Amino acid sequence: MNNYTTYGKMKERTTISFTGPMLTFTSMRRPMLGFLSMSVGLGYLKYTDEITILNDIKQKATQYGSTLGTCVDVGYYFPLSENFFLGAQASLIQGALYSVKQTDFKGYTQTVRYDKSDYENITHLDLSVGLRYCW
Questions:
Q1: Which of 31, 52, 101, 129 has a CA that sits 20 to 30 A from residue 113's CA?
Q2: Between residues 68 and 7, the one the model is more confident about
Q3: Residue 2 pLDDT > 60, yes or no?
Q4: Residue 81, class by beta-carbon neighbours within 10 Å (0-12 exposed, 13-18 middle, 19+ buried)?
């Protein structure tokens, strides 16, 4: 961010969010053995990175961008009872940024456009465990 040097404790908060329609397939042929759930989607992908330096005065820099992204998830759920299932799921969100808007610690804002060979890759893998109720 414009070759800015400062000292202090740093806090960084990165957010990747996907908003869009999802097509979901659920296979529940043998409910007592569990079921498989798969989804795929195409939609709006937003990336935000906030850096805060905590010294005598609070200094903040941000970088954000958005693009078209994809989301794919797969999960398997095991029965606990007739209606409750416990399972694990893996979700992958992916996209490429062509440009980002940066605001440095001094408040100067600029748009950075990447060359075709240098697009910024955004990938997020989420592993989760959950309880599901099916009626």
A1: 52
A2: 68
A3: no
A4: exposed
Q: What pLDDT, on the 0 to 100 scale, is given for residue 114?
A: 92
Based on its alpha-carbon atoms, the radius of gyration of the chain, rounded to whole angstroms, reads 21
Q: 69 with 121: CB under 8 angstroms?
A: no
Residue 107: CB partners within 8 Å, gap ≥ 6? none
- Residue of higher predicted confidence among 31 and 85: 85
SS3 call for 68? strand
Contacts of 55 (CB under 8 A, 6+ apart): 6, 7, 8, 9
Residue 33 backbone phi and psi in degrees, to 5: -95, -10
Q: Quote the tokens at residue 66.
A: 């958005």
